[in-house]
Every structure is written in structure tokens, then in C-alpha cells.
Predict the 3D structure of the following.
Amino acid sequence: MPKAVWEAQELATDPHQRGDKPQKVQAMFSAIAGAYDLNNRLHSFGLDERWRKAAVRAARVRAGDDIVDIACGTGDLTEQFAGTPARSVLGLDFTPAMLDIARVKSARRKHPNAVPRYEHGDATALALPDASADVVSIAFGLRNVGAPERALAEFRRVLRPGGRLVVLEFDEPTNPVIRTMNRLYTHRIMPWTASLIARDRSGAYRYLPRSVETFLDRQRLREAMLAADFSSVEQIPLTFGTCVVSVATVAQ
């Protein structure tokens, strides 16, 4: 039997404080890559695609923009950006197994505008020149990087004046009834059913709700974006606040 990536005692504390978090996250996503899309569709009731569309709208893509989608996974958000008037679309991810699936999916699609490229990349050390992108996006991935503040600084570095950073991330609903129901689903029901579907023993679907619970809430994320030298931050709650689109802008 494969050894679990995340042990129960490790998730009893804050997983974001672990020095080996990047390696664990990579191993975890390698283990669940094959069932990742199916679990996303099923356990979000199809809403994940709607959330990504909202993120693309919030990016306000203009003709000729260069877009970098960080932690692109299997490419769902990257492919949506490829449907905009962007000049170029680059998807980066830390897990090669996810990129393999993204490339297969992309090859099956027609791209009337930019054909997306997929490359291995580390959000905290981007192999990109300064001021080389108009939009940087990251969907459900900022909490999985080893040092989110360092990643935000990297996103700011590669954005041009007037550029936009779009962060789509889970959050806790503010309504107490909805928050209780959401916690029951994400902490009790989803980990069991998703692990069953993926035949996963890595602990990925126990880590994911715990990583949301212990990560920056929307206000602290806004503060972190401003601290990274973004000039303004707009936040758009989605589906009763279960996730939030945060758009940070670079001054002109």
C-alpha cells in the first residue's frame, strides 16, 4: 500500500507551516491527477467552471495581452483564457503529471486565437522577465505554494504597469448557516467521496479542506496583495462566499 503523503497528525496542525509542503503538494497532485477533473466537476456540482469564467471576466483581457496562468493544473482556466483576444497564454504548474493532462486536453481543442503553452514552473521563482505579462492568474493554487507572500511578489514583478493579478480561491461564507453547511460538506462528505472516486491514499482530499481553513481569509489576502505593491484590490464573492475572485492592479 502506498505511503500517505499527508498523515492525520500532520493535518492536525497548520500544513502551511511545513518546510516540506511544496514536495508534499507535488506528490499529492501527482497521485490524484487522473481523477482531478472528474472530482472537480462532481464535488463543485459543476460550479467550478462558472467560477473560472468569472475569473476570466474579472481579468478584463484586452487584445494583445500576454497572460500567465500559475498553478494551471490540468489547464481548465488556461484554456478559458485562450478563448479571449490575448496575444499569448502560458500555463505553469509545479506538478508534471498535471501538465501532461493539460497538454493532452489542449491538443484536442481548436484555438482561434492564442494557442496556450504549458511549462513546468515554480510560483515563488518564475523563470519570466520583469514586466512581461499583462495578466497573471492563479485559481485554487495560492494556498498550495510554499511561500504565498514570495509568490505574490513574483506575480507583481512580472506584471506590466496596468497589469492585473487574478486570484480565485476558496473562502469561508460569512453567513453562519451556510458556513456550517459548507464545512460539513467540505470536511466530512467531500473528503470521503472524492478519495473513493480517485482511489486516493495520499490524503489529498483531507489536506484540501484543511488548507482552506488555515489559509488567508479574503481580508488578509487583500492586505497581502497591497503589501506586495499592488495599487488596488477588488474582491468578488461567488456562490454565497464559498470562493472569492480577488483582482489586484499594478499602478500605471
Remarks:
- Strands lie at 66-70, 88-93, 117-120, 133-139, 159-170, 232-238, 243-249.
- The domain at 8-249 is CATH 3.40.50.150 (Rossmann fold).
- The chain has ten helices and seven strands.
- The chain has a mean pLDDT of 95.
